[in-house]
Design a protein that fits this description.
This is Copper chaperone PCu(A)C. This protein is about 15% helix and about 50% strand. By secondary structure, it is mainly beta. Bound molecules: copper (II) ion. The site of copper (II) ion (CU) has 4 residues, from strand 8.
Length: about 160
């Protein structure tokens, strides 16, 4: 009886360890490509950044929020662009962005974008900025965005 109990307990310990070992953070399952921010004119109060966010895991993940250093801007938000009655406007993505297993979501001019509000200074082409992404499991990922002129961008939009 004693032998069986020890065996059973060691099985419990091992399986618990295995579960923890395999529960990787969402931030570790993300690969960001094509990260860039649009260069702004000198007195611009807002800016936008774009990327493709890839989920390399076999489980859906959710990007909850984005933040930026106070030295760059007062706030950063996840936005999407909507057409309503032929008028283009932007809305914050209150529920974040879901990235399906083994797939990606594109942030592009005219679509989803990262909005930088209250810029402390212009975003200058050739420089870069770091954005911090927080996922549903509270894991965090920092990524560097190259600042580029809009003329080099794939598509153009008012902001
Ligand atoms: Cu926006």
């Amino acid at each position: 009886m004693k032998t069986i109990l020890v065996f059973f307990m060691s099985f419990l310990v091992c399986s618990t360890f295995a579960a923890e070992h395999h529960a990787s953070k969402m931030a570790d399952q993300v690969k960001i490509d094509n990260a860039w921010a649009r260069a702004t004119f000198a007195l611009a109060k807002s800016g936008a950044a774009y990327m493709t966010i890839n989920n390399i895991s076999a489980k859906e993940l959710r990007l909850v929020s984005v933040s930026v250093s106070e030295s760059v801007a007062n706030d950063a938000q996840l936005h999407h662009t909507i057409m309503k009655d032929d008028v283009m406007s932007m809305q914050e993505l209150d529920d974040g962005v879901v990235v399906d297993a083994s797939s990606g979501v594109e942030f592009l001019p005219g679509g989803k974008h990262i909005m930088l509000l209250g810029l402390t200074g212009p975003l200058l082409a050739g420089e870069s900025l770091v954005l911090t992404f927080t996922f549903e499991d509270e894991s965090i990922l920092n990524h560097t965005f190259a600042i580029k002129d809009a003329t080099n961008a794939p598509k153009s939009m008012s902001h």
